[in-house]
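Reply to dn_fold:

You asked what the input looked like. This is it:
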Amino acid sequence: MPETPEPPKRPRTGTDLRRGALGTADISFFVVSAAAPLTVMAGVAPVAILLGGVGAPAGYLLAGLTLAIFAVGFTTMSRHVRSGGAFYAYIARGLGKRVGIGAALLALIGYNGMEIGVYGLLGTTTADTGHALAGLDIPWLPVSLAGLLLIWYGGFRSIDFGAKLLGILLVAETGILVLLAGGVLIDGGAHGLSAGSFAPGAVLVPGTAAVLAFAFAAFTGFESTVIYRREARDPDRTIPRATYIAVAFLGLFYAFIVWTVIQAFGSEEVLAVAAADPAGLFFTAITTYVGPWAADLMHVFIVTSVLASLLAFHNAINRYALSLAEEGVLPAALGRIHPRHGSPYVAGAAQTALGAVVVLGFALAGADPYQQLLLWVNTPGMIGLMALMLLAAIAVPVYFRRVRHDEGPWRTLIAPVTAAVLLAVAICLVISKVALFTMASTTVNTLLVALVPAVFLAGLALAQRLKTRRPEVYARFAEEPAGAAEPAVPAAPAAPAAPAAQGESAAPVVSP
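and this is what came back:
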């Protein structure tokens, strides 16, 4: 049987990203910083407590467990598909190029949505901090625009510069939460410490579904570890380690901090305090158990937490755009890498310009920076990234069924299928509780949710257009670049290839 011709390989350019610049800790900083732990805790956890009661901490553990199961197949596939495109590359190799291109567009829109909306949060948190500390009335728009320039500069500089900066900011925001927890534990809480938050009677309540929706949203961005493959030291080890560290840290840390705040007020009283002043719950707790000076620091560190999240997402977006430019899907100019800093600086400038357009558009429309710019732009981004995780989980067993490998069934079948089921449930939970995220009308919520399938369908249409008009781009989509390292697994003896679908690359078939 004649061999199926391989699609053309993408050549590597002379200027590349900074190879070997990131270790496990550096990548973990990017991932955890994107989640913005302090902002999530102080800004969102009080609402989770209101909805789920004292069992809210368990919701974060359950979400973390689900994503840890997803990470099993996800990181296994990262050893076989060596691409900076991450999700879209995995999906393309498992479910075909059309679905992969649809996923690529969804990823680009999803990550941009998660970042650009946060500029509204930057404006409001800075205004709140200025008012709380000095009685100042700071307009949000100049702050957001200044933030755009600051984040652009952070992305323009080398990736190790960004990792060091995020490390400092992350230590600050987690440190203030640890300080709060330490004060509560030393004093023994309001009525002594109790593990009642993890009792079945506290967890198995109707409000837990809403808590789970918030908890999954709190992990957004953890999957971006694989985006940094080209810049990682020993990526076959570094990427999985960073992924598991990020998921474990976020799940355990979120649950611990929420449990601590419940202990600070007492299981009976915390709901009343959260209902009276949800935004002030954490500040009241740290003032009581540590001191007013710590509350002032928390105000400042919330602003730096938002900045860290913005920089982490900005770097992830730039690398997605870089990969798609190298694929030929986006304009080639976006694939330019700075000769000194090794950063995708053109993609960074384009992303900053897009952010400025959206921020200014909301401002000119008189929109609220929190309830509309943040919530309306973030929500479809969050749902889109969860949909990408679901597609990636489905792609894993399909891919490993088609290729020869020496991985076990837990990594290639059981874990990814379990993760796919759990992620599908999580997406349904988030959509069913979407009004809690947006605080908007049914019409607005319907439009925001509908954006996700609409973007994916637009990606499928783009795939068909590429296949028809630029077949060479379609043929090499999600294939390994020329000169890329071979997979770490030993190559199996060649087997006759199954006929490939038109435009799809052939994959070795596993014998039954």
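Confidence is low (pLDDT under 50) at residues 1-14, 482-512.
Hope that clears it up.
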